[in-house]
Amino acid sequence: MKKIIYIFILPTILFLTSCSKGGGGASGPEIPCDFTGTWEGQYTGGDNGIMSGVVNSRCDVSGTIYSNNLGMFDDISGTIESDGSFYGSVTTGAIFEGQINENYGSGIWSNPIDGISGTWSMNKQSVPSSYNFNCDVVFYLDYSASAYMILNNIPYYTFYDGFGNQLGSISNQYYWNTPPPCTYQTNESTVTNSLSWTGTNSSQITATLSWSAYAPGNTTPTYSHDHIVTANICNQIGLTLKKIESYQATKK
Length: 252
Hints:
Blueprint: E1 3-6, E2 37-45, E3 49-55, E4 60-67, E5 72-80, E6 85-90, E7 95-100, E8 104-111, E9 116-124, E10 131-141, H1 143-151, E11 156-161, E12 166-171, E13 191-199, E14 206-214, E15 223-230, E16 234-239, H2 241-250
Parallel strand pairs: 1-13, 10-16
Antiparallel strand pairs: 2-3, 2-9, 3-4, 4-5, 5-6, 6-7, 7-8, 8-9, 10-13, 11-12, 11-14, 14-15
């Protein structure tokens, strides 16, 4: 069964794009940047993902992009000239080029190391008083946890969030050798949920999900943990024998 949970604990992570210096040599007055503000966008092609960040008063570009191919964030840095031409590079070797105006930017990107390329676009964002984020989460057992449950006559674990809300249960008969998707499983071999939280700026794309697993009839959890979740992706949380033993060792 899929439930929606609202959480409000807000760790932060800083994202992508900014702006550059307008021409100029070593002397002379600094030219004001016309592109300051928060920008968000995406890129597509041989890889795809999201981009977000802040343009500073010098139009320097610094921040982060998320790669769906790699399943990770990466740093980007670059410049935007006074005519709006943009050049940026990522530590993986990708190069971003294009044109920026007051509210919109677009262009092409390529990664000569991986031999892939595509296009990108971004929009300057207004500054709301708060930002809403959401993500999907899936809980599952690995083989070691399933075997431990069978050996100790534990028929199932029930999962709860940090507010005491019951999320669902998983039988000792089901385990996964690889992390499962966040889609609902008709055999109830996973527990899936949607999470929502609010932040004060667009870079607060992570939050802390507190959760616990209880055996039937127990008033203390077999395992409890604070997990960092990321917006707009499937967050896969596995329960393993190693986690259970490490947690139980702290309670002795």
